[in-house]
Amino acid sequence: MTDYTTWLSSSTGFSSTATDYWKAIFSNSTLLYGDATCCITTKPDLPEGLMTLETAAGQFMAVLTPEMAVKAALQQQPVLPEQHFRQQLARAGIPLHGADYVFYYTEAARQELLQEQSLRQLRRLTAADQAIFDLMQAAATEEDKDGAYVELNHWAVFGSFAGEQLAGAASMYPWDDSQLADLGVLTLEPFRGQGHARRLVRAICRYALEQGYEPQYRCQLDNEASVRLAHAAGLTLFGKWDFIASHYQEQITG
């Protein structure tokens, strides 16, 4: 039987840290449907209940618990391409959160980043920077703060300054007990378009690599500014990731 997890590592150039993380999610599962571009499986011990990943090459993978498959009547379907799969979820009232783009560095881009000396001008923020960090947060909109999720108590935090003012910050935390480091970045509106966000992303990603972590950059599909930033920072699209909506998951597990 075809091992569909090979889709995650073929012709990508991404690190094994990233590909192995996603392979572990989709491996050891029972095949419901599989063809050249679509794979749907079930897995009993899946905490999220349901997860999908579409690779940058357009290959769609879905894994869900057997109970969720029964609820969506997937076991009764002789053909399950992606569109049909999504229709079955909708009919069963199973909502998805809304997909994120997921970006990583390729090996070539990673080596270039590690050799970039100018990034050392940006510094890590610590608890001693609480006052200036709070001023930056106070000047940001609630929407920007919610979307960025930048916190001073995260595993790593970097700041970019305009004179004495903190113009922007990026923070990271280990993702799902793995060696992936998920990042967020926030730049105050008056300082956008000046390169602060790009330098922040590259500086904190370089730090993560030096500490043995693989940087992970995520953003919503309609966040065009964030997508442009990912490319400007040298990241490459890995795929589109989605999962069951949190409020629905709470209902079925509560």
Topology as H/E string? HEEEEHHEHEHHEEEHEHEH
- Which superfamily, in CATH terms, is the homologous superfamily of the largest domain? Gcn5-related N-acetyltransferase (GNAT)
Helical content, roughly?
25-40%
Which regions contain 5 or more consecutive residues with pLDDT less than 50?
Answer: none
| Beta-strand percentage range | 25-35%
Envelope shape:
elongated
Examine the coordinates and then state which fold CATH places here, giving the name of the CATH topology of the largest domain.
Answer: Aminopeptidase
Protein name: GNAT family N-acetyltransferase
GO molecular function, one term: acyltransferase activity, transferring groups other than amino-acyl groups
Organism: Chitinophaga solisilvae
Pfam families: Acetyltransf_1 (PF00583)
Short summary:
With about 250 residues, this protein is of the alpha+beta class. Helix content is about 35%, strand content about 25%. An eleven-stranded mixed β-sheet has the order 1-2-4-3-11-5-10-9-8-7-6, with helices on both faces.
Q: How would you explain this protein's 3D organization?
A:
With 254 residues, the chain is an alpha+beta fold. The protein contains 9 helices and 11 strands. The chain has helices at 16-26, 66-71, 82-91, 107-114, 130-139, 142-148, 196-210, 224-232, 246-253; strands at residues 30-34, 38-42, 50-55, 60-64, 100-104, 123-124, 156-162, 165-174, 180-187, 214-220, 236-243. The protein has an 11-stranded mixed beta sheet with strand order 1-2-4-3-11-5-10-9-8-7-6, with helices on both faces. A hairpin with a 2-residue loop joins strand 7 and strand 8 (165-174). The longest helix is centred in the C-terminal third of the chain and has 15 residues, at 196-210. The model has no long low-confidence stretch (mean pLDDT 93).
